């Protein structure tokens, strides 16, 4: 059993055993703990969960989207990545221009009502097709606001200048590796109450160089442990690999620190099913040796080797 994956499974058990039942923004309800930490030794394998299948291509294309500073789902949809659709779709169906069937609480209703689910799937399909084909529609309804990519690459200052945090941090790692200021933050208090589809959950990350290895610590204010956290673990592990590759370093640890770590009430049975499974050996990651800059990365530059897992487990997303 992988020690890396066990850190995640132990967190799931802790929340089920000791979590406080709480209401939340989505109205779904959660079991929650406050303040948790997992550590993943990236030398021991790439931390993609094996107790359920996790789609690595979705993780990689989303990270590339962040790195490019993009905030529109059109790029994601063109790469068959649907993980941000619900937030953009919610904006569309709540707009004055939308004239289709009532889509209120579409996430939960689509699971409970097959007739409604067929309507929802048809509306979502039409929405996605239009985002891909119609640049003007995509500009208006595919845009998620100043979310992660915007803050990482184009932080707007009070004097209307911009800061490319990610580019600056990579340069600092190369030129001043012992600095304690290798930090990128997505939590912009000015932008949070504005038109963000979702205020950043993974809010701040810091890099650390020691013994020729690059480590990363993420602070995540809000953590959907069943659906979101497996993606977050793999995404920041991949980011660490990519930056280490550019900077000529080995990888060290990924440290994942969580604020409100929660399991949604409609994910409990899925978590229990996952906990009943034995973990498998972790895969390894290979990066194209010809890749010189993280800002030039394409999906074809990243190879996941020897990934084996138990089947995927479906669960509704809380929007």
Automatic annotation (TrEMBL):
GO molecular function term, any single one: thymidylate synthase activity
Keyword RNA-binding: no
Binding site for (6R)-5,10-methylene-5,6,7,8-tetrahydrofolate: 55, 224, 318
Top-level division of the source organism's lineage: Bacteria
GO biological processes: dTMP biosynthetic process; dTTP biosynthetic process; methylation
Known pathway: Pyrimidine metabolism; dTTP biosynthesis
Keywords: Cytoplasm, Methyltransferase, Nucleotide biosynthesis, Transferase
Keyword Methyltransferase appears in the UniProt entry: yes
Subcellular location: Cytoplasm
InterPro entries attached to this UniProt entry: Thymidate_synth/dCMP_Mease, Thymidate_synth/dCMP_Mease_dom, Thymidate_synth/dCMP_Mease_sf, Thymidylate_synthase, Thymidylate_synthase_AS
Annotated Gene Ontology cellular component terms: cytosol
Reactions it catalyzes: dUMP + (6R)-5,10-methylene-5,6,7,8-tetrahydrofolate = 7,8-dihydrofolate + dTMP
Function: Catalyzes the reductive methylation of 2'-deoxyuridine-5'-monophosphate (dUMP) to 2'-deoxythymidine-5'-monophosphate (dTMP) while utilizing 5,10-methylenetetrahydrofolate (mTHF) as the methyl donor and reductant in the reaction, yielding dihydrofolate (DHF) as a by-product. This enzymatic reaction provides an intracellular de novo source of dTMP, an essential precursor for DNA biosynthesis.
Family: Belongs to the thymidylate synthase family. Bacterial-type ThyA subfamily.
The protein's name: Thymidylate synthase
Organism: Amphibacillus xylanus (strain ATCC 51415 / DSM 6626 / JCM 7361 / LMG 17667 / NBRC 15112 / Ep01)
Name of the gene encoding the protein in the UniProt record: thyA
């Amino acid at each position: 059993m992988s020690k890396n994956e066990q850190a995640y499974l132990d967190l799931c058990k802790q929340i089920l055993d000791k979590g406080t039942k709480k209401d939340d923004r989505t109205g779904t309800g959660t079991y929650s703990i406050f303040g948790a930490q997992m550590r993943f030794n990236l030398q021991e394998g790439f931390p993609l969960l094996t107790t359920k299948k996790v789609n690595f291509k979705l993780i990689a294309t989303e990270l590339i989207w962040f790195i490019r500073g993009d905030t529109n789902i059109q790029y994601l949809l063109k790469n068959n990545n649907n993980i941000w659709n619900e937030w953009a779709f919610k904006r569309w169906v709540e707009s004055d221009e939308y004239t289709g069937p009532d889509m209120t609480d579409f996430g939960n209703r689509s699971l409970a009502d097959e007739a409604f689910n067929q309507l929802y799937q048809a509306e979502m399909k039409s929405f996605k097709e239009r985002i891909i084909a119609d640049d003007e529609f995509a500009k208006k309804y595919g845009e998620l606001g100043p979310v992660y990519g915007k803050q990482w690459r184009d932080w707007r200052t009070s004097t209307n200048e911009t800061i490319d945090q990610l580019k600056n941090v990579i340069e600092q790692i190369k030129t001043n590796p012992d600095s304690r200021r290798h930090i990128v933050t997505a939590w912009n208090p000015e932008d949070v109450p504005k038109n963000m589809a979702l205020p950043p959950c993974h809010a701040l990350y810091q890099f650390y160089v020691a013994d020729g290895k690059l480590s990363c610590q993420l602070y995540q204010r809000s953590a959907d442990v069943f659906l979101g956290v497996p993606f977050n673990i793999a995404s920041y592990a991949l980011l660490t690999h990519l930056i280490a590759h550019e900077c000529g370093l080995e990888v060290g640890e990924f440290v994942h620190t969580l604020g409100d770590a929660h399991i949604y009430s409609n994910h409990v049975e899925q978590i229990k099913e996952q906990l009943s499974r034995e973990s498998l050996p972790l895969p390894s990651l290979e990066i194209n040796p010809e890749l010189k800059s993280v800002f030039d990365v394409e999906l074809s530059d990243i190879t996941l080797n020897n990934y084996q897992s138990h089947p995927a487990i479906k669960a509704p997303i809380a929007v």
